[in-house]
Design goal:
Distance between the termini: 14 Å
Largest sheet: 5 strands, parallel
Oligomer: single chain
CATH class of the largest domain: Alpha Beta
Strand order of the largest sheet: 7-6-5-8-9
Bound molecules: phosphoric acid mono(formamide)ester, norvaline
CATH topology of the largest domain: Rossmann fold
Length: 328
């Protein structure tokens, strides 16, 4: 099956077979990289990375994956281009697709990356929008597959703000790949009802299960994977911290929570994470609210069941698979 010329905007656009194929290719690239086998199969191509929000993993993954494939990269930071200020998304798409072979976009509304793709003649890849973070979920599923040797039937519990890009994309990905997915959060943090309805239909076709359980002690029983993300996402106002801390603290991933899961359960996080006070924001918020961590304790983050750095490495292998598969 060929993905050549396709955009990678959200997992809803891909079949389970196509997602499987991308994961297979990422696993192959990882093996080749570890064995020192070169795979410069896109030699001489050029890509541009548009970042309207900060990034460590996604930017570095696109850059290193591009270099490994033999490509050249231009990075545009939030202040470094005319996008959205003096030049519309539609004009930007037509300009950049005349110069480059592929375009990555990280920023705000999903409608922006969809518009970029509609006006671009080369593949556009979503490096995170307010609504979706599809490249993240490929890395997460690669990590789960490496660890458990399968995806189907894996009991994945997502704790915290499930309305955000990572929560939404895990919901879609789980429905596509037949996982047993539980959102564990207060009801107001559940994903949008229309997305849930769509995902229930997809899950029914693929043997997946979608559940919503607000009691953490009940939700995590027999879980294979506990996944969480930050309580306040990029682009949200700092005024929401107080409310999030008060409403989501019962959903912090602690050793007590992990002790209720299935034997051999793992902890996952897309990162960056507020698991201690060793960051400027973490320190400030920690001092303001008298806490030493937010969505996960340092004990769980640093424990043997935490696969967060394997997940982070897999961002690069999966992004490489996306670019290698879609570039013309
Ligand atoms: N997980 C993730 O997207 O990290 P960055 O914000 O560092 O890219
Ligand atoms: N939900 C987070 C994910 C960061 C990778 C955010 O959007 O800030």
């Amino acid at each position: 099956m060929s993905l050549v010329g396709r955009d990678f905007l959200k997992l809803l656009d891909f079949t389970p077979e196509e997602i499987q194929e991308l994961l297979d290719l990422a696993i192959q690239f990882k093996k080749e990289k570890k064995e020192g086998v070169a795979h410069r199969i896109k030699e001489g191509k050029n890509i541009v990375l548009i970042f309207e929000k900060p990034s460590t993993r996604t930017r570095c993954s696109f850059e290193v994956a591009a270099y490994d494939l033999g490509m050249h990269v231009t990075y545009l930071d939030p202040q470094g281009s005319q996008i959205g200020g003096k030049e519309s998304i539609a004009d930007t798409a037509r300009v950049l697709s005349g110069i480059y072979d592929g375009i990555e976009y990280r920023g705000y509304g999903q409608d922006i990356v969809e518009e970029l793709a509609a006006f671009s003649s080369v593949p556009v890849w979503n490096g995170l929008t307010t609504e979706f973070h599809p490249t993240q979920i490929l890395a997460d599923f690669m990590t789960i597959r490496e660890h458990f040797r399968r995806l189907k039937g894996i009991r994945l519990v997502y704790m915290g703000d499930a309305r955000n890009n990572v929560g939404n994309s895990l919901l879609v990905g789980s429905a596509k790949m037949g996982l047993d997915f539980t959102v564990c959060a207060p009801e107001k943090y559940f994903p949008d009802a229309s997305l849930v309805e769509k995902c229930r239909e997809i899950a029914n076709e693929n043997g997946g299960v979608i559940k919503f359980i607000s009691d953490p002690d009940v939700a995590v029983i027999d879980a294979d994977v506990i996944y969480t993300d930050v309580w306040v996402s990029m682009g949200e106002p700092s005024e929401v911290w107080e409310e999030r801390i008060s409403e989501l603290s019962p959903y912090r991933v602690t050793s007590e929570i992990m002790s209720k899961t299935a034997p051999g359960a793992i902890f996952m996080h897309c990162l960056p994470s507020f698991h201690d006070l060793n960051t400027s924001i973490g320190k400030k918020i920690g001092e303001m609210y008298g806490i030493d961590c937010m969505e996960v304790t340092n004990e769980v983050f640093e424990s043997a069941c935490s696969l967060v750095f394997q997940q982070a490495e897999n961002r690069m292998h999966t992004i490489k698979a996306i670019m290698a598969s879609t570039l013309l």
